[in-house]
Amino acid sequence: MSCYRGPRFKKIRRLGALPGLTSKRPRAGSDLRNQSRSGKRSQYRIRLEEKQKLRFHYGLTERQLLNYVHIARKAKWAIGRVLLQLLEMHLDNILFRLGMASTILGARQLVNHRHILVNGRIVDIPSYCCKP
């Protein structure tokens, strides 16, 4: 599967803090969001930025995100809550939350290099869905 391989720091400056993307922090004076656009943000722009934050934070493509939204709709609960539960149950995200890696991308690398055991078995799929 593919993930975003472009400049990550540009996305952080554009969308705000994304702790799972990189551990770097922008300088206080280099906030491009305040310089480039002023005025009222439309509802469309707010929703688009939130969707892009989800995509870049969890390392998903547009198609993968749509598939998760369809799964969440089938559950017939609040789509946002179910969607976040599905994404938070990924093995790479769990490793990031436990502090075993500084970023989600680092956690993905740990899983891909077969350094992680789940119930005594080696798992090399970062999107492996863990149960609580």
From TrEMBL:
Q: Which GO terms describe its cellular component?
A: plastid; small ribosomal subunit
Residue span, Small ribosomal subunit protein uS4 N-terminal domain? 3-88
Q: Which GO terms describe its biological process?
A: ribosomal small subunit biogenesis
At the top level, the lineage of the source is: Eukaryota
Subcellular location, in the record's words? Answer: Plastid
Q: Which organism is it from?
A: Vitis vinifera (Grape)
Tell me the PANTHER family matching this sequence: 30S 40S RIBOSOMAL PROTEIN (PTHR11831), SMALL RIBOSOMAL SUBUNIT PROTEIN US4M (PTHR11831:SF4)
Q: Which UniProt keywords apply?
A: Plastid, Ribonucleoprotein, Ribosomal protein, RNA-binding, rRNA-binding
Any coiled-coil ranges, and where? none
Q: Where is this region: Disordered?
A: 20-44
Q: Which CDD domains match?
A: S4
Q: What SUPFAM superfamilies does this protein's entry cite?
A: Alpha-L RNA-binding motif
Which family is it part of? Belongs to the universal ribosomal protein uS4 family.
- Give the Gene Ontology MF terms in alphabetical order: rRNA binding; structural constituent of ribosome
Q: What is this protein called?
A: Small ribosomal subunit protein uS4c
Q: Which PROSITE patterns match?
A: S4 (PS50889)
Q: Which InterPro entries match?
A: Ribosomal_uS4 (IPR022801), Ribosomal_uS4_N (IPR001912), S4_RNA-bd (IPR002942), S4_RNA-bd_sf (IPR036986)
